[in-house]
């Protein structure tokens, strides 16, 4: 779950909603490259889920890539742009915990998935 939408139950839903409501630049305070990245998650989050549901290793790989890059993007937004910290951002705390879960379990899950 993204720190920007901490109350939303699903990451992909938040990104799709933002894209539909505000276009490719839903966060006026953020640089275009971050807005484009977050908007791209409207495609990549459900794609990773669909591949995982389909039993494909690429789904685990994509989920790891999305989580790793999302953590980097969100940490940059919080620390570098908003000058805040992890302790002041419960949404980023949850995103970090979810990233640890995804990245930590992916190697074990990946073994049981088809190429």
Summarize the structure.
This protein has helices at residues 11-22, 32-53, 57-81, 90-110. It is mainly α and 115 residues long.
Tag the structure with descriptive keywords:
115 residues; mainly alpha; globular; disordered N terminus
Can you describe this structure?
The chain has 115 residues and is an all-alpha fold. The chain has helices spanning 11-22, 32-53, 57-81, 90-110. The longest helix is centred in the middle third of the chain and has 25 residues, at 57-81. Residues 1-9 have low confidence and may be disordered.
Q: Which whole number gives the mean pLDDT? A: 86
Main structural class: mainly alpha
Poorly predicted runs are: 1-9
Tell me how many strands there are: 0
Query: Could you state the order of secondary-structure elements as H and E?
Result: HHHH
Largest sheet: none
Shape designation: globular
Give the CA-CA distance, first to last residue. 27 Å
Number of helices: 4
**Rg, please?**
14 Å
- Name the helicity range: 55-70%
